[in-house]
Amino acid sequence: IPPRTERMAVDQDWSSVYPTAAAFKPSAVPLPIRMGYPVKRGVPPPKEGNLELVKIPNFLHLTPPAIKKHCAALKDFCTEWPSALDSDEKCEQHFPIEIETVDYVSAGTSIRNPKARVVTLKVKLSNLNLDDHARKKLIKLVGERYCEDTDILTITTDRCPLRRQNYDYSIHLLTVLYHESWKTEMWESEKTEEDMEEYIWENSCSQKNALDTLLRIKASENVSNVTEEELLASEVVKNYRNSVIALKNEGETEDNMSQYKESVKKLLNIQ
Amino acid sequence: LDHGYALHTTAKDCFSSLASQDAQTLTETPREVFYTSENDPAKHAEHHEGRHYSIPLEEVKAVFPHGLPPRFQQQIKTFNEAYVMVRKPALELFTYLKSSNFAHPAVRYVIYGERGTGKTMTLCHVIHFCARQGWLVLHIPDAHLWVKNCRKLMQSSYNKKRLDQPLQASAWLKNFKISNERFLKEIKTHKKYVWGKRESTEEGSPLGEVVEQGLARVRSASDAVGVVLKELRQHCQLGAFRLLVAVDGVNALWGRTTLKKEDRSPVSPEELTLVYNLRKMMMNNW
């Protein structure tokens, strides 16, 4: 008997041919596809009896009209999106915390999946009320979970067996981090130069060396004793300070290096 | 930072100036475009930029016993002449060095750039300039040679925690002697140095003796290097002569070493006598 493809109309309902995910049936798909490696002076093999087409996953059950039908069926179970939240910025402004959970469905005897208990909490630190010290302490406490480029703190919890417990735990973690970063412990005053996140020029080797050199230059020229505060407040030293901070914090770029060169030339008075 | 555009632009400039002239001018041969007959580095100016100048071979042997990169030395052997290109950073350095005030603490300059842009050759150009002007040149050809692939490491007799490198130190002393012979006779030591049970150098003896001592007894070569550096620093403060310290590959003094002690623990640069003494030269307090 001729295959089903020859009896198909052009405007038929495709979602009834492939209602669910099924293997590729050459007699039910009217497309003239060829797939495979051609032998010498030949063409790729046709679709009849073609194992290659059966092996690969196909999405013939997910055509746009089929998806429209899915959406129409699910609409009764959905609520409408609030009309006031029409842009991303407004969503972030009113709901800064984002919770991500994943549900798993599979064909099997049980509906439970241990991966479903994972909860991911994302929040932007600019939405939290933190001052300078609290922000640095929070970033240190949190470590890898903070991304500097996007300013998002991501907390993933899966240590509890139920999703609701994981969600409560992640909220608890966020609260604890916030309050702890505002407190200042006694041992925090022992913070050394290696712990600093960014370069601070005051009380650094660079400042000492620069002042030392300037004082010696003044001494060799027999200028009356200029105090350190005067030197620190002078234009050339401030220029030098800015260029050194730029070099250390931003890395070495051509602009930074030429700025540093100019400031050193002015500092040491060489042409 | 000049990536070889200098050569191209000078060639173009020459030809454009030729085109604007009306009268019958002889076309410049490539030799005159790319080479300059000005052999004295002190007289090099911006219009010499991008051109090569030659150093007579006897001067090369006297001034650069260990300074030039190995490829350049091969090139000298092939062509039988040493031609160095005049680069813009070198000219900049000449202006700074000519106008430097010797009463002030020493100024340190850094030549930086990507691989193959001519940093070592610029350094050699500056060294040639200073040698012609009569400065004492302290040239360390490549600091990396002192922190990696060293065969013999001995414990220093002067300071128990540090390690000596007799081979590298004696090689450097030999080359230092060749390049700065006349200074070694003039400079006198300030202190008495005791090398072992029977050898010692008296106060007031020329520095050449310290160098000979280092070459003769290889064990104390690194200490000899340290003594030489200390004496040079002290003499510089008195102002007898001008000193140029040129180190190629300065980052090696502060980076990691590939050397290991006998118990396979890594050696940090401070523990090497040569590196420790050289770091003291790098400060600007002389």
From TrEMBL, chain A:
Which InterPro entries does the annotation name? Ribosomal_mS35_mit, Ribosomal_mS35_mt
Among Pfam families, the record links this protein to: MRP-S28 (PF10213)
What this protein is called in its record is: Small ribosomal subunit protein mS35 mitochondrial conserved domain-containing protein
Tell me which GO cellular component terms the UniProt record holds.
Answer: mitochondrial small ribosomal subunit
Identify the species of origin.
Apaloderma vittatum
- Domain Small ribosomal subunit protein mS35 mitochondrial conserved: residue ranges: 111-183
This protein's source sits in the domain of life called Eukaryota
Q: Which GO terms describe its molecular function?
A: structural constituent of ribosome
Which BP terms in the Gene Ontology apply to this protein? mitochondrial translation
TrEMBL record, chain B:
- Record's subcellular location: Mitochondrion
Q: Which GO terms describe its cellular component?
A: mitochondrial small ribosomal subunit
The cross-references to InterPro entries, in alphabetical order and at most eight, read: P-loop_NTPase, Ribosomal_mS29, Ribosomal_mS29_met
Q: Name one GO molecular function term.
A: structural constituent of ribosome
Q: Which GO terms describe its biological process?
A: apoptotic process
Please list which residues make up the signal peptide: none
The organism's superkingdom is given as Eukaryota
Q: Give a yes or no for keyword Mitochondrion in this entry.
A: yes
**Presence of keyword Transit peptide:** yes
**Keywords tagged on the record:** Mitochondrion, Ribonucleoprotein, Ribosomal protein, Transit peptide
Xref: PANTHER family: MITOCHONDRIAL 28S RIBOSOMAL PROTEIN S29, SMALL RIBOSOMAL SUBUNIT PROTEIN MS29
Q: Which family does it belong to?
A: Belongs to the mitochondrion-specific ribosomal protein mS29 family.
Protein name per the record: Small ribosomal subunit protein mS29
Q: Which organism is it from?
A: Apaloderma vittatum (Bar-tailed trogon)
